[in-house]
Design goal:
single chain, alpha/beta, Rossmann fold, 2 domains, 5-stranded parallel sheet, 7 strands, 7% strand, elongated
Length: 438
């Protein structure tokens, strides 16, 4: 799918509208047309261009991590093959170097996933935190605005999908490390003749036989020639002679184990975690700001598909016409319609005895829920003229005026209230019909 997708654009627009002065054009006919403003704002370096550039940086950072892991895998193997004049390699020391830390990391990851299975963790992990830190440093020198960077990481690393993103990066890095180790091991075995030996002070011979036979179970399914009991016993460090067949069996055992117990599981887990990350992202519910924007333009698209006939609509719904803000009397049927009390701290007016519905808009959550539930029916919002409207109030009514086509501002306190003129000015600026209420 071509990036940026519609969902990515919507997430960027919602974040910018909530955290900056940016606003999508209200005159756009639909959401797709409105989101095009991200390409041209600011004029020389659009928000969408910055967003796409950040994604390229993020992908390059992940690829750089994989390259570093690959190089570390290639570097880790040669010291273990430094045999000197004896030409002997401790087979189980090789296993510890190539698969030991991999197995330990896998166990820690598995326990962590079980422990957080039913939790919504917001942690980003060391790898992801490092990548985000590097990306932010680069963005500062690439003319990318701070709010765009914050919007990108909010979109790229959502809380409920974070652990799958971290897991896919971790498994991918380990897969690169192990694959590089497997390639270097194959190269060294092709160009060097070594005797595979083992030695112990505390363990018995039987323990090594049992361990080797256990690890040989899966490789045997593929018909690979592996060390038998005689090969294992003949490979003690104090036994000098070792046949070519024994060396071949140990080499097959080593290469097969690295591939089957290291590389393939990591690649499979990378694919699974990456798939789950994309599934979680795809099924993520829209945030409240995203719903507000979507409903705003869905309503406008619906209106543009129909011709409004003024004769069939009552005067109380005149707010559907643009720039129709006016100071008129309250319609006769208004008290039986839907009402909301905005940042209301006093008793409910006696006049509002039996409205169709009455809701409070006293906090951010209530206001977001109100904006996320648009309606074509008449809606009256009662405001207290003794309290001054602020920037948050202006933002709320700007969004509400586009979400509710039949919205009225009712100013409680009369014409002589302290901030009555401020509320009237706000109503005119947001193109809302308003009326006093005492």
């Amino acid at each position: 799918m071509t990036f940026p997708t519609q969902g990515a654009k919507l997430a960027l627009a919602a974040w910018l509208e909530s955290h900056s002065a940016f606003r999508l054009p209200t005159e756009a006919n639909n959401l797709s047309d409105a989101l095009k403003a991200l390409e041209t704002t600011p004029h020389l370096n659009g928000y969408l261009t910055q967003f796409s550039r950040l994604r390229r940086y993020f992908i390059r950072a992940i690829l750089s991590l994989f390259v570093v892991s690959f190089l570390l895998g290639m570097i880790a193997v040669p010291p273990a093959f430094a045999t000197g004049e004896s030409h002997q390699v401790n087979i189980f020391w090789l296993f510890i170097i190539l698969l030991g830390f991999h197995a330990l990391n896998f166990v820690v990851w598995f326990i962590t996933m079980l422990a957080t299975m039913r939790q919504q963790t917001s942690g980003q992990g060391l790898l992801l935190s490092l990548l985000i830190f590097i990306n932010k440093k680069i963005s500062k020198h690439s003319h990318i605005e701070e709010e765009v960077a914050a919007a990108y990481f909010h979109w790229q690393c959502p809380t409920h999908a974070n652990k799958w993103l971290v897991s896919s990066i971790s498994h991918g890095a380990w897969g690169c490390y192990l694959f590089a180790g497997w390639m270097m091991t194959l190269l060294l075995l092709l160009t060097n003749q070594v005797n595979f030996v083992w030695e112990t002070t505390l363990l018995s011979d039987n323990a090594f036989i049992q361990l080797t036979q256990t690890l040989s179970v899966i490789p045997q399914w593929f018909g690979i020639s592996l060390p038998n009991q005689l090969d294992i016993l003949a490979s003690r460090v104090d036994l000098v002679s070792q046949t070519a067949a024994t060396r071949q069996h140990w080499a097959n055992f080593l290469l097969a184990s690295i591939m089957l117990y290291g590389v393939l599981p990591r690649l499979i887990l990378t694919a699974i975690c990456l798939g789950l990350y994309h599934v979680k992202r795809a099924t993520q519910p829209l945030s409240t700001p995203e719903k507000i924007i979507q409903n705003r333009y869905r309503q406008q698209a619906k209106q543009s598909r129909h011709i409004l006939d003024a004769d069939h609509h009552p005067a109380s719904h005149s707010a559907t016409n643009a720039n129709n803000a006016s100071n008129g009397p309250l319609p006769s049927n208004a008290l039986s319609q839907h009402w909301a009390l905005y940042e209301w701290s006093q008793a409910k007016p006696d006049s509002l005895r039996q409205p169709r519905s009455l809701s409070l808009l006293n906090n951010r959550q209530q206001q977001d829920d109100f904006l996320a539930s648009p309606s074509d029916e008449a809606m009256y919002i009662l405001v207290d003229a003794k309290q001054s409207p602020d920037r948050g109030t202006r933002r709320f009514f700007s969004q509400a005026s586009t979400t509710y086509p039949a919205l009225f501002m009712v100013i409680y306190g009369g014409e002589n209230a302290t901030f009555s003129e401020d509320w009237q000015r706000l109503a005119r600026e947001t193109h809302l019909p308003f009326t006093p209420f005492t």
